[in-house]
Amino acid sequence: MAVRESGITFIFDENLSGKLAQIVDHCGKNLTPPVRAEPFPQHLRSKPDLEWALEFKGKDVVILTSDRRMISDHSIAAFAKAHGLTYLFLSNKTDHMINWDLLKWLLTNLPKISRGLSKIQAGTCWQVGVDGGLHVVHCTDK
Amino acid sequence: MSVVETKVDSRTEREMIRYTLEGASFLLKLPSTTVRNWANGYTIAGKYKQTKQRGVLRSDRSEPYLFNFYELIELLYVKELTREREGSKPYATLKEVRDMVDFLAEEHGEYPLAQAQFHKVMNQIVTENKTTSLLTNPILAQHLLDFAHELVVQLDFDDGMVSTWYPCPDKIVRVNPLIRFGQPIIEDGVTCETIYLRFNNRHETEDEIAEDLNIPVERVKAAIKFEEEWLSGKAA
Fold this sequence. Notes:
heterodimer, A: Rossmann fold, B: Arc Repressor Mutant, subunit A, two-stranded antiparallel sheet, 10 helices, 8 strands
């Protein structure tokens, strides 16, 4: 499958600072394919998951979030599949990075991740390793 | 017709999101072995034989290490019923809770403790002085009723089932399985874990987080306090 020319827009969940999204967006827009970044829209934050899922459905966006400690990844993968969303879980190791290190990591790895994700279908859930490698998260742990 | 469909959907949606054993243990402030034992049952090894104790939950436990929201609330009830209170015994033993769930499940199906009916049923048992095999003791019955009143203020109900849990008395933090996949959130919809991660790991200040997320700093503080209290509760 060819790499999408239009690139991918990453929606940064609140675990990533809005300033990081601004810098990544500024640096990534001239790349080929472009890497765009936006913070999760404030007006959707307190909405039920079903409602905000509809906002993103059918758009070339990837929701970038940290690993969920409490919730089974598989149930989020099932949600992503049901609503045609693409989810990307950051590695647990990035949770321990200060913003400066996280910015360096994002700028280094997002172009590679973006190329990898542009070849996949919406409705899937992925875990990114600290090396930028992608691993699919299945809907069931069986 | 459409109303019925909505009810089914919202209940199914609440059942879809599953808490991990670690997540349930964190939210209930209980060791994971206790959560697992209460939910799935356990075996007591005696000198000559082993005794198997059933779990308290009556729902389908095909995934024994995952819990839906209703199961989480039922385990919260089990915790509150069986915990020792200041200067007094627990309201009920685990066996009594198990018997009570069996009794209620016959009439109300799975998740009997997560239903608004539970409170009503408790009231009925006490006021009508119903003699059941599980509640022959009127003092226990009165305690259970007091307990139901106590816990009901922490919960919101929708369509007869628990829809939101407020773990802290100030109600800033809430757990609603339909929002943010049932993680504890502040009323702006930001997860407490996210705020704590940024404060603790990313070394952002409370003011910086509040400014970036465009929320009052008091809520940032409440989220951090919740995470710290719950993390220490779990460790204890």
